[in-house]
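hey team, just a heads up i'm posting the complex here instead of the shared drive bc the drive is being weird again. everything in one block, sequence lines first with there labels, then the predicted structure for the whole assembly after. its two chains so it's a bit long, scroll down
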Amino acid sequence: MSRLAGLDRQAIASALLAFRSGQRPATVMDRIAKGFTDEEIQAIAAWYAAQK
Amino acid sequence: MAFGQAAAPRVAVVGGGFAGVSCARALRKVDPRIVVTLVEPSAVFLACPLTNSVIAGLRDMDRQRFTYEAVQADGVAFAPSAAASIDPRGRTVTLADGTRVPYDRMVLAPGIDIRWDALPGYDEAAAERMPHAWRAGEQTLLLRRQLQAMEDGGLVVISAPANPYRCPPGPYERASLIAHYLKAHKPRSKVIVLDAKDAFPKQRLFLSAWKELYPGLIEWVPLSSGGQVISVEPAGRTLVTDFERYPAAVANVIPPQKAGRIAEVAGVADRSGWCPIDPVTFESKLQPNIHVIGDAAIAGAMPKSAFAANAQAKSCAAAVAALLAGRQPGPSKLINTCYSLVAPDYGFSVAGVYHAEGGQLVEVSGSGGVSPADAPRSLRVLEATYAEAWFRTITAEAFG
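-- predicted structure starts here --
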Protein backbone atom coordinates (compact mmCIF):
# COMPACT_ATOMS: atom_id res chain seq x y z
CA MET A 1 0.00 0.00 0.00
CA SER A 2 1.44 3.39 -0.92
CA ARG A 3 1.66 6.31 1.48
CA LEU A 4 -0.62 9.23 0.66
CA ALA A 5 1.40 11.94 2.37
CA GLY A 6 3.38 13.97 -0.11
CA LEU A 7 1.94 12.33 -3.23
CA ASP A 8 1.04 14.55 -6.14
CA ARG A 9 -2.19 16.41 -5.50
CA GLN A 10 -3.67 15.63 -8.89
CA ALA A 11 -2.80 11.95 -8.57
CA ILE A 12 -4.63 11.71 -5.25
CA ALA A 13 -7.68 13.53 -6.63
CA SER A 14 -7.75 11.31 -9.74
CA ALA A 15 -7.54 8.18 -7.59
CA LEU A 16 -10.40 9.32 -5.37
CA LEU A 17 -12.54 10.21 -8.40
CA ALA A 18 -11.82 6.80 -9.95
CA PHE A 19 -12.73 5.06 -6.67
CA ARG A 20 -15.96 7.05 -6.58
CA SER A 21 -16.95 6.19 -10.14
CA GLY A 22 -16.05 2.53 -9.68
CA GLN A 23 -13.38 2.67 -12.42
CA ARG A 24 -10.64 1.79 -9.99
CA PRO A 25 -11.05 -1.56 -8.20
CA ALA A 26 -11.30 -1.28 -4.43
CA THR A 27 -12.43 -3.11 -1.30
CA VAL A 28 -13.55 -0.16 0.81
CA MET A 29 -12.39 3.09 -0.85
CA ASP A 30 -15.23 3.00 -3.39
CA ARG A 31 -17.78 3.04 -0.57
CA ILE A 32 -15.99 5.89 1.20
CA ALA A 33 -15.28 8.04 -1.87
CA LYS A 34 -18.99 8.04 -2.71
CA GLY A 35 -19.54 10.18 0.41
CA PHE A 36 -17.55 13.14 -0.91
CA THR A 37 -18.23 15.93 -3.43
CA ASP A 38 -15.81 17.09 -6.13
CA GLU A 39 -14.80 20.07 -4.01
CA GLU A 40 -14.20 17.89 -0.96
CA ILE A 41 -12.09 15.47 -2.99
CA GLN A 42 -9.94 18.37 -4.21
CA ALA A 43 -9.57 19.60 -0.61
CA ILE A 44 -8.61 16.12 0.63
CA ALA A 45 -6.03 15.78 -2.17
CA ALA A 46 -4.53 19.19 -1.41
CA TRP A 47 -4.24 18.36 2.28
CA TYR A 48 -2.52 15.00 1.78
CA ALA A 49 -0.19 16.42 -0.87
CA ALA A 50 0.95 19.07 1.60
CA GLN A 51 1.82 16.49 4.32
CA LYS A 52 5.38 15.22 4.71
CA MET B 1 -12.35 33.00 26.21
CA ALA B 2 -10.92 34.03 22.84
CA PHE B 3 -7.37 33.84 21.59
CA GLY B 4 -5.33 37.02 21.84
CA GLN B 5 -6.02 37.34 25.54
CA ALA B 6 -3.23 36.73 27.97
CA ALA B 7 -4.16 33.26 29.19
CA ALA B 8 -3.89 30.26 26.88
CA PRO B 9 -7.15 28.35 26.50
CA ARG B 10 -7.38 25.14 28.51
CA VAL B 11 -9.08 21.94 27.48
CA ALA B 12 -9.52 18.99 29.83
CA VAL B 13 -9.98 15.66 28.08
CA VAL B 14 -11.42 12.98 30.34
CA GLY B 15 -10.83 9.40 29.22
CA GLY B 16 -7.76 7.89 27.53
CA GLY B 17 -9.35 5.58 24.98
CA PHE B 18 -9.42 5.98 21.20
CA ALA B 19 -11.74 9.02 21.42
CA GLY B 20 -10.00 10.93 24.20
CA VAL B 21 -6.42 10.35 23.06
CA SER B 22 -7.19 11.13 19.43
CA CYS B 23 -8.92 14.35 20.49
CA ALA B 24 -6.10 15.45 22.83
CA ARG B 25 -3.52 14.97 20.06
CA ALA B 26 -5.73 16.63 17.43
CA LEU B 27 -6.24 19.67 19.66
CA ARG B 28 -2.46 20.14 19.97
CA LYS B 29 -2.12 19.78 16.22
CA VAL B 30 -4.94 22.20 15.37
CA ASP B 31 -3.54 24.84 17.72
CA PRO B 32 -0.44 24.26 19.85
CA ARG B 33 -1.42 27.23 22.05
CA ILE B 34 -4.19 25.13 23.60
CA VAL B 35 -3.19 23.66 26.95
CA VAL B 36 -4.51 20.10 26.90
CA THR B 37 -4.76 17.90 30.00
CA LEU B 38 -5.63 14.23 29.56
CA VAL B 39 -7.28 12.70 32.63
CA GLU B 40 -6.85 8.93 32.73
CA PRO B 41 -6.19 6.67 35.75
CA SER B 42 -4.55 3.77 33.86
CA ALA B 43 -0.96 3.92 32.65
CA VAL B 44 -1.75 1.22 30.09
CA PHE B 45 -4.52 1.13 27.51
CA LEU B 46 -5.86 -2.23 26.36
CA ALA B 47 -7.48 -1.92 22.94
CA CYS B 48 -10.73 -3.79 22.35
CA PRO B 49 -10.58 -4.28 18.55
CA LEU B 50 -9.21 -7.76 17.70
CA THR B 51 -9.73 -9.05 21.27
CA ASN B 52 -12.09 -11.65 19.79
CA SER B 53 -8.93 -13.09 18.21
CA VAL B 54 -7.31 -13.09 21.66
CA ILE B 55 -10.31 -15.00 23.07
CA ALA B 56 -10.04 -17.56 20.25
CA GLY B 57 -6.35 -18.10 21.02
CA LEU B 58 -5.22 -16.52 17.74
CA ARG B 59 -3.56 -13.43 19.15
CA ASP B 60 -1.44 -12.43 22.11
CA MET B 61 -2.92 -9.96 24.61
CA ASP B 62 0.39 -8.03 24.59
CA ARG B 63 -0.48 -6.80 21.12
CA GLN B 64 -3.47 -4.96 22.62
CA ARG B 65 -1.31 -2.94 25.07
CA PHE B 66 -0.59 0.74 24.48
CA THR B 67 0.84 3.52 26.65
CA TYR B 68 0.60 7.29 26.80
CA GLU B 69 4.23 8.31 26.14
CA ALA B 70 3.68 9.46 22.56
CA VAL B 71 0.61 11.43 23.60
CA GLN B 72 2.66 13.27 26.21
CA ALA B 73 5.45 13.87 23.70
CA ASP B 74 2.88 15.83 21.69
CA GLY B 75 2.63 18.25 24.60
CA VAL B 76 -0.44 16.79 26.25
CA ALA B 77 -0.27 16.98 30.06
CA PHE B 78 -1.12 13.59 31.56
CA ALA B 79 -3.10 13.53 34.82
CA PRO B 80 -2.87 9.92 36.07
CA SER B 81 -6.05 9.86 38.10
CA ALA B 82 -9.78 9.32 37.63
CA ALA B 83 -12.20 12.23 37.32
CA ALA B 84 -14.26 12.20 40.53
CA SER B 85 -16.55 15.17 40.01
CA ILE B 86 -17.21 17.88 37.48
CA ASP B 87 -18.49 21.38 38.12
CA PRO B 88 -19.91 22.60 34.79
CA ARG B 89 -20.59 26.12 36.12
CA GLY B 90 -17.18 26.55 37.70
CA ARG B 91 -15.58 24.72 34.74
CA THR B 92 -13.47 22.53 36.97
CA VAL B 93 -12.91 18.81 37.13
CA THR B 94 -11.78 17.38 40.45
CA LEU B 95 -9.72 14.21 40.30
CA ALA B 96 -9.77 11.24 42.67
CA ASP B 97 -6.37 12.32 44.02
CA GLY B 98 -7.81 15.74 44.92
CA THR B 99 -6.21 17.69 42.05
CA ARG B 100 -8.47 20.34 40.53
CA VAL B 101 -8.16 20.89 36.78
CA PRO B 102 -9.81 24.10 35.54
CA TYR B 103 -10.89 24.20 31.90
CA ASP B 104 -12.46 26.47 29.32
CA ARG B 105 -13.90 23.48 27.51
CA MET B 106 -14.01 19.85 28.43
CA VAL B 107 -14.05 16.80 26.20
CA LEU B 108 -15.61 13.80 27.88
CA ALA B 109 -14.71 10.44 26.36
CA PRO B 110 -15.59 7.93 29.07
CA GLY B 111 -16.47 4.95 26.87
CA ILE B 112 -18.96 2.47 28.26
CA ASP B 113 -19.97 1.04 31.59
CA ILE B 114 -21.91 -2.17 32.11
CA ARG B 115 -25.49 -1.67 33.35
CA TRP B 116 -25.24 -4.01 36.31
CA ASP B 117 -28.92 -3.41 37.16
CA ALA B 118 -30.32 -4.33 33.75
CA LEU B 119 -30.17 -8.13 33.59
CA PRO B 120 -31.46 -10.01 36.67
CA GLY B 121 -28.74 -12.21 38.11
CA TYR B 122 -25.90 -10.48 36.27
CA ASP B 123 -23.74 -8.50 38.67
CA GLU B 124 -20.00 -8.06 39.03
CA ALA B 125 -19.67 -11.38 40.87
CA ALA B 126 -21.63 -13.15 38.12
CA ALA B 127 -19.20 -11.73 35.53
CA GLU B 128 -16.44 -13.77 37.17
CA ARG B 129 -18.31 -16.96 36.17
CA MET B 130 -20.04 -15.69 33.03
CA PRO B 131 -17.58 -13.14 31.59
CA HIS B 132 -18.77 -10.26 29.42
CA ALA B 133 -15.30 -9.66 27.98
CA TRP B 134 -16.68 -6.44 26.51
CA ARG B 135 -13.88 -4.30 27.88
CA ALA B 136 -10.39 -5.52 27.14
CA GLY B 137 -8.47 -6.90 30.08
CA GLU B 138 -8.80 -9.67 32.64
CA GLN B 139 -12.33 -10.44 31.34
CA THR B 140 -10.90 -11.16 27.88
CA LEU B 141 -8.38 -13.61 29.30
CA LEU B 142 -10.97 -15.21 31.59
CA LEU B 143 -13.20 -16.06 28.64
CA ARG B 144 -10.22 -17.46 26.75
CA ARG B 145 -9.21 -19.64 29.73
CA GLN B 146 -12.77 -20.93 30.11
CA LEU B 147 -12.88 -21.93 26.43
CA GLN B 148 -9.53 -23.67 26.68
CA ALA B 149 -10.56 -25.53 29.86
CA MET B 150 -13.92 -26.62 28.42
CA GLU B 151 -14.37 -30.27 27.50
CA ASP B 152 -15.04 -31.28 23.92
CA GLY B 153 -18.81 -31.36 23.48
CA GLY B 154 -19.43 -28.40 25.83
CA LEU B 155 -21.98 -25.79 24.84
CA VAL B 156 -20.87 -22.16 24.44
CA VAL B 157 -23.68 -19.61 24.80
CA ILE B 158 -23.28 -15.94 23.89
CA SER B 159 -25.98 -13.46 24.80
CA ALA B 160 -26.13 -10.37 22.56
CA PRO B 161 -27.83 -7.20 23.81
CA ALA B 162 -30.39 -4.89 22.24
CA ASN B 163 -29.12 -1.73 20.53
CA PRO B 164 -27.28 0.49 21.23
CA TYR B 165 -24.06 -1.05 22.50
CA ARG B 166 -20.31 -0.92 21.83
CA CYS B 167 -19.13 -2.62 18.62
CA PRO B 168 -22.43 -3.72 16.96
CA PRO B 169 -20.91 -6.59 14.89
CA GLY B 170 -18.72 -7.73 17.80
CA PRO B 171 -20.91 -10.53 19.20
CA TYR B 172 -21.09 -12.17 15.77
CA GLU B 173 -17.37 -11.90 15.10
CA ARG B 174 -16.87 -13.45 18.53
CA ALA B 175 -19.23 -16.35 17.73
CA SER B 176 -17.33 -16.87 14.47
CA LEU B 177 -13.85 -16.96 15.99
CA ILE B 178 -14.97 -19.15 18.90
CA ALA B 179 -16.40 -21.54 16.28
CA HIS B 180 -13.02 -21.42 14.53
CA TYR B 181 -11.37 -22.47 17.80
CA LEU B 182 -13.94 -25.21 18.47
CA LYS B 183 -13.68 -26.63 14.96
CA ALA B 184 -9.95 -27.17 15.45
CA HIS B 185 -9.87 -28.17 19.12
CA LYS B 186 -13.35 -29.19 20.30
CA PRO B 187 -15.22 -30.40 17.23
CA ARG B 188 -18.16 -31.86 19.20
CA SER B 189 -18.91 -28.44 20.78
CA LYS B 190 -21.14 -25.70 19.40
CA VAL B 191 -22.03 -22.04 19.88
CA ILE B 192 -25.51 -20.66 20.45
CA VAL B 193 -26.07 -16.90 20.12
CA LEU B 194 -29.12 -15.75 22.08
CA ASP B 195 -30.04 -12.36 20.65
CA ALA B 196 -32.25 -9.53 21.93
CA LYS B 197 -32.51 -8.34 18.28
CA ASP B 198 -33.93 -9.65 15.02
CA ALA B 199 -31.18 -8.15 12.88
CA PHE B 200 -27.48 -7.34 13.21
CA PRO B 201 -24.78 -5.63 11.14
CA LYS B 202 -23.26 -7.55 8.19
CA GLN B 203 -25.89 -10.22 8.90
CA ARG B 204 -26.03 -11.73 5.40
CA LEU B 205 -22.26 -11.92 5.26
CA PHE B 206 -21.99 -13.57 8.66
CA LEU B 207 -24.78 -16.08 8.06
CA SER B 208 -23.39 -17.14 4.70
CA ALA B 209 -19.83 -17.41 6.07
CA TRP B 210 -21.08 -19.53 8.97
CA LYS B 211 -22.76 -21.88 6.52
CA GLU B 212 -19.57 -22.09 4.48
CA LEU B 213 -16.98 -22.38 7.27
CA TYR B 214 -18.83 -23.69 10.31
CA PRO B 215 -21.85 -25.71 9.18
CA GLY B 216 -23.91 -26.79 12.21
CA LEU B 217 -21.49 -25.14 14.64
CA ILE B 218 -23.25 -21.80 15.24
CA GLU B 219 -26.93 -21.41 16.01
CA TRP B 220 -28.38 -17.88 16.05
CA VAL B 221 -31.62 -17.44 17.99
CA PRO B 222 -33.15 -14.03 17.18
CA LEU B 223 -35.56 -12.08 19.39
CA SER B 224 -38.61 -13.27 17.47
CA SER B 225 -37.61 -16.90 18.08
CA GLY B 226 -37.28 -16.30 21.82
CA GLY B 227 -33.61 -15.27 21.84
CA GLN B 228 -33.82 -12.53 24.44
CA VAL B 229 -32.10 -13.49 27.70
CA ILE B 230 -34.25 -12.29 30.61
CA SER B 231 -32.12 -13.52 33.50
CA VAL B 232 -28.98 -15.50 34.27
CA GLU B 233 -28.06 -17.99 36.99
CA PRO B 234 -24.30 -17.83 37.58
CA ALA B 235 -24.13 -20.97 39.77
CA GLY B 236 -25.13 -23.22 36.86
CA ARG B 237 -23.90 -20.86 34.13
CA THR B 238 -27.49 -20.86 32.89
CA LEU B 239 -29.09 -18.29 30.59
CA VAL B 240 -32.87 -18.00 30.81
CA THR B 241 -35.23 -16.82 28.06
CA ASP B 242 -39.02 -16.62 28.07
CA PHE B 243 -39.17 -20.13 26.64
CA GLU B 244 -36.06 -22.05 27.57
CA ARG B 245 -33.16 -22.51 29.93
CA TYR B 246 -29.67 -22.81 28.44
CA PRO B 247 -27.13 -24.37 30.84
CA ALA B 248 -23.76 -23.57 29.27
CA ALA B 249 -20.26 -24.93 29.68
CA VAL B 250 -19.03 -21.43 28.81
CA ALA B 251 -21.41 -18.49 29.04
CA ASN B 252 -20.45 -15.12 27.55
CA VAL B 253 -23.00 -12.53 28.64
CA ILE B 254 -22.68 -9.31 26.67
CA PRO B 255 -24.89 -7.17 28.88
CA PRO B 256 -26.74 -3.89 28.28
CA GLN B 257 -24.44 -0.87 28.53
CA LYS B 258 -24.44 2.88 29.17
CA ALA B 259 -22.04 5.79 28.96
CA GLY B 260 -19.10 5.63 31.37
CA ARG B 261 -20.04 6.62 34.91
CA ILE B 262 -18.49 10.10 34.85
CA ALA B 263 -21.05 11.11 32.19
CA GLU B 264 -23.80 10.65 34.74
CA VAL B 265 -21.78 12.55 37.37
CA ALA B 266 -21.27 15.44 34.93
CA GLY B 267 -24.97 15.51 34.10
CA VAL B 268 -24.46 14.90 30.38
CA ALA B 269 -26.23 11.49 30.18
CA ASP B 270 -29.98 11.39 29.58
CA ARG B 271 -32.46 8.76 30.76
CA SER B 272 -31.23 6.35 28.09
CA GLY B 273 -27.85 6.31 29.84
CA TRP B 274 -26.13 7.84 26.78
CA CYS B 275 -25.20 11.46 25.98
CA PRO B 276 -27.13 13.68 23.57
CA ILE B 277 -24.83 16.00 21.60
CA ASP B 278 -24.78 18.65 18.90
CA PRO B 279 -23.81 16.83 15.67
CA VAL B 280 -21.32 19.52 14.55
CA THR B 281 -19.52 20.46 17.77
CA PHE B 282 -20.28 17.37 19.89
CA GLU B 283 -21.18 19.77 22.71
CA SER B 284 -23.56 18.23 25.21
CA LYS B 285 -27.20 19.21 24.86
CA LEU B 286 -27.46 19.05 28.66
CA GLN B 287 -24.39 20.96 29.90
CA PRO B 288 -22.53 23.87 28.29
CA ASN B 289 -18.81 23.68 27.47
CA ILE B 290 -18.71 19.91 27.81
CA HIS B 291 -18.27 17.93 24.57
CA VAL B 292 -18.92 14.19 24.49
CA ILE B 293 -17.33 11.87 21.93
CA GLY B 294 -16.89 8.15 21.33
CA ASP B 295 -19.04 5.29 22.58
CA ALA B 296 -20.72 7.46 25.25
CA ALA B 297 -22.25 9.88 22.72
CA ILE B 298 -25.57 9.53 20.92
CA ALA B 299 -24.05 10.01 17.48
CA GLY B 300 -27.06 9.26 15.27
CA ALA B 301 -26.21 6.80 12.54
CA MET B 302 -22.57 6.42 13.61
CA PRO B 303 -21.84 3.10 15.34
CA LYS B 304 -19.95 2.83 18.61
CA SER B 305 -16.60 1.84 17.11
CA ALA B 306 -12.96 2.84 17.57
CA PHE B 307 -12.84 4.32 14.08
CA ALA B 308 -15.98 6.40 14.69
CA ALA B 309 -14.50 7.56 18.01
CA ASN B 310 -11.32 8.65 16.23
CA ALA B 311 -13.27 10.53 13.55
CA GLN B 312 -15.47 12.23 16.12
CA ALA B 313 -12.36 13.17 18.11
CA LYS B 314 -10.81 15.05 15.18
CA SER B 315 -14.06 16.72 14.25
CA CYS B 316 -14.66 17.73 17.85
CA ALA B 317 -11.10 19.05 18.21
CA ALA B 318 -11.57 21.32 15.20
CA ALA B 319 -14.88 22.58 16.62
CA VAL B 320 -13.45 23.14 20.11
CA ALA B 321 -10.46 25.04 18.69
CA ALA B 322 -12.80 27.21 16.61
CA LEU B 323 -15.08 27.96 19.56
CA LEU B 324 -12.08 28.85 21.76
CA ALA B 325 -10.91 31.24 19.06
CA GLY B 326 -14.34 32.83 18.82
CA ARG B 327 -14.98 31.35 15.38
CA GLN B 328 -18.01 29.47 14.11
CA PRO B 329 -17.21 25.74 13.77
CA GLY B 330 -17.50 24.54 10.19
CA PRO B 331 -19.33 21.41 9.10
CA SER B 332 -17.34 18.23 8.59
CA LYS B 333 -17.73 14.74 7.23
CA LEU B 334 -16.88 11.77 9.37
CA ILE B 335 -15.93 8.28 8.24
CA ASN B 336 -16.35 4.91 9.89
CA THR B 337 -14.68 1.72 8.71
CA CYS B 338 -14.95 -1.48 10.65
CA TYR B 339 -13.71 -4.98 9.81
CA SER B 340 -15.00 -8.27 11.15
CA LEU B 341 -13.14 -11.56 11.04
CA VAL B 342 -14.96 -14.86 10.60
CA ALA B 343 -11.63 -16.72 10.45
CA PRO B 344 -8.02 -15.49 10.50
CA ASP B 345 -8.09 -15.43 6.68
CA TYR B 346 -11.72 -14.48 6.17
CA GLY B 347 -12.82 -10.87 6.75
CA PHE B 348 -15.32 -8.30 5.55
CA SER B 349 -16.07 -4.67 6.28
CA VAL B 350 -18.67 -2.00 6.70
CA ALA B 351 -17.95 1.63 5.82
CA GLY B 352 -19.96 4.81 6.18
CA VAL B 353 -19.59 8.56 5.61
CA TYR B 354 -21.63 10.81 7.89
CA HIS B 355 -22.57 14.47 8.18
CA ALA B 356 -24.84 16.65 10.28
CA GLU B 357 -28.28 17.08 8.81
CA GLY B 358 -31.45 18.16 10.59
CA GLY B 359 -29.67 18.15 13.96
CA GLN B 360 -28.51 14.54 13.57
CA LEU B 361 -25.47 12.67 12.30
CA VAL B 362 -26.80 10.85 9.24
CA GLU B 363 -25.18 8.76 6.54
CA VAL B 364 -24.36 10.64 3.33
CA SER B 365 -26.79 9.14 0.86
CA GLY B 366 -25.22 6.85 -1.74
CA SER B 367 -22.09 6.27 0.35
CA GLY B 368 -20.99 3.41 2.54
CA GLY B 369 -22.26 -0.14 2.82
CA VAL B 370 -20.86 -3.60 3.44
CA SER B 371 -18.53 -5.86 1.44
CA PRO B 372 -20.24 -7.56 -1.51
CA ALA B 373 -22.16 -10.77 -0.74
CA ASP B 374 -21.05 -12.62 -3.86
CA ALA B 375 -17.33 -11.89 -3.63
CA PRO B 376 -14.63 -14.49 -4.35
CA ARG B 377 -12.75 -15.95 -1.41
CA SER B 378 -9.68 -13.92 -2.39
CA LEU B 379 -11.51 -10.73 -1.36
CA ARG B 380 -12.26 -12.19 2.09
CA VAL B 381 -8.56 -13.07 2.45
CA LEU B 382 -7.57 -9.55 1.40
CA GLU B 383 -9.99 -7.90 3.80
CA ALA B 384 -8.69 -10.07 6.65
CA THR B 385 -5.21 -8.61 6.04
CA TYR B 386 -6.76 -5.13 5.91
CA ALA B 387 -8.37 -5.75 9.31
CA GLU B 388 -4.89 -6.12 10.79
CA ALA B 389 -3.67 -3.04 8.86
CA TRP B 390 -6.69 -1.12 10.15
CA PHE B 391 -5.68 -1.98 13.72
CA ARG B 392 -2.07 -0.93 13.16
CA THR B 393 -3.13 2.38 11.62
CA ILE B 394 -5.70 3.41 14.19
CA THR B 395 -3.58 2.43 17.18
CA ALA B 396 -0.58 4.24 15.66
CA GLU B 397 -2.67 7.37 15.16
CA ALA B 398 -3.95 7.30 18.74
CA PHE B 399 -0.96 5.93 20.67
CA GLY B 400 2.05 5.69 18.35
